[in-house]
Amino acid sequence: MEKINFCSRTRLILNNQSERQCGELIRPFSDNVLIVLGGNFIKGTTWYANILSSLSKYNITYYELSGVRSNPTIDLINEGIRLCKEKNIKFILSIGGGSAIDTAKSISLLPSIPKNEDLDAWKFFTGEYEVKATLAVGCVMTIMSTGSEASNGAVVTNPETQQKLDIMNDALRPMFCVMNPNITNSVPRHQIECGIADMFSHVLERYFTTSADTILTDKFGEAVMKTILSEVVNLENDFMSYSARANLMLSSIFAHNDLVGMGRLQEWTTHTIAAPLSGVYNIVHAETISVILPNWARYVYKSSIDKFVKLGVNVFNIDNHLDKELITKETIRELTLFFKRLNMPTTMQEINIETSDKFELMADQAVINGNNEKIGTIQHLTKKDVINIYHNSF
After folding, report:
1. Which residues have C-beta within 8 Å of that of residue 13, sequence separation ≥ 6?
2. CB proximity list for 115: less than 8 A, separation 6 or greater
3. Is 169 exposed, middle or buried (0-12, 13-18, 19+ CB in 10 A)?
4. Is 63 exposed, middle or buried (0-12, 13-18, 19+ CB in 10 A)?
């Protein structure tokens, strides 16, 4: 087990009227709020009216920032930063999925921008600015997905440079996350499916580790993955199931607040390889993950075959009397079928990539300095390996 330094300050509120508590939750922090909206549909919903009513009840002034899209962009973030500075806003309420939350978190970096410097949050992602303080952030969760609601990270795309970069700091963890499973009924089915695929990958990339003595967090991770698998079946039987959506909302949180990652070296290679696909082609994040993850697994499984066997036996219920190689191949097959069950792509062609002409550019972004650098935990991969995984994904 590795050293542990775990922080999770996010208050979780889940009930069928939780959005009515927003005013009460925000008022101790500020009476002046920026609402970051994750979709135009939100304004027409009853539950958004409930949120605004709760703000009014506590005499909270609010401003709205819309235009968030999948793979949130730095231009909208900088617009939000300017608005917060102009209106002296001290609290940001995100309403939406991971893109809205990451936008809100990135805007919250305003207090850390050095005086007389550019109001450009991208400089935090490139390391030019240091995170020292943030505005407070709260979330209303509209989809079980990225887990950004309680995580310490944010991911942002710069369309000009075609880069997708992340930043990690515990100051970015939201103060609260409001969850009403009925709110998720407003979200299109494919977005729900993308969210489930993403949360499963968050557990899986923490599950693969070279760290020893991780029995407790192994079991945490297996429990979350098994819950996701079972609730997918329940959604197939009743897509509006309150209990299934509630369990998936909690699974999304626990998949990415690092509870299942404590004391472990973590394997984030799939996210690293998949991120350039979003940055270069503007493909939905979860769809890049469902393409890359099984193909990464096929490429590296021999470096961690015992872990693949454990995953197969404990999560996918594969017969533990079979040969290790056979169990592993069946595990990867089950993982691929899980993504297909969610109507997710598993090949490059399914995300409309027909040529390899940008693979070298994307591999450079994944590995940063080409063949002189390596990525990966259970197996170190070079730029050449990354290109091979892209090719194997056709």
Report:
1. 21, 25, 176, 177, 178, 179
2. none
3. middle
4. middle
318 φ/ψ angles, rounded to the nearest 5 degrees: -85, 145
Query: Average pLDDT over the chain, rounded to whole?
Result: 95
pTM flag (> 0.85): yes
- Phi, psi values for residue 237, rounded to 5°: -80, -35
Q: Enter the DSSP assignment of 377.
A: S
Closest C-alpha to 274, from 379, 174, 345:
345
Q: Where are the alpha helices (DSSP H) in the chain?
A: 22-26, 46-57, 74-87, 98-107, 122-125, 189-207, 215-237, 242-256, 269-281, 285-300, 305-314, 324-341, 359-367, 383-392
**Whole-number Å distance between alpha carbons of 133 and 148:** 18
Q: What percent of the chain has pLDDT over 90?
A: 92
- Residues 204 and 269: their CA atoms lie apart, in Å, by 11
Residue corresponding to tokens 């290679």: 269
Q: Is 282 left (phi over 0), alpha (psi -120 to 50) or beta?
A: left
pLDDT per residue as tens digits for the range 147-170? 999 999 999 999 998 888 999 999
Q: Under a CB-based contact definition with an 8 Å cutoff, are residues 264 and 211 in contact?
A: yes
Q: Angle 215-237/324-341 helices, nearest 10 degrees?
A: 40
What's the CA gap between 150 and 117, in Å, rounded?
A: 30
Which residues, 6 or more positions from 155, have their beta carbon under 8 angstroms from its beta carbon?
Answer: 72, 102, 164, 165, 166, 275, 285
- Smallest Cα–Cα separation from 6: which of 392, 277, 321, 264? 264
Hey, is 214 helix, strand or coil?
A: coil
Q: For residue range 241-286, list pLDDT tens digits in order.
A: 999 999 999 999 999 999 999 999 999 999 999 999 998 999 999 9
| Beta strand 153-158 pairing with 163-168 | antiparallel
Alpha-carbon gap, residue 382 to 361, rounded angstroms? 14
Q: State the pLDDT at residue 331.
A: 98
Alpha-carbon torsion, ordered 238, 243, 247, 253, to 10 deg: 100
- Give the confidence band of 371 by pLDDT, cuts at 50, 70, 90: low
Token pair listed for 194:
């993308």
What's the token pair of residue 331? 């595990």
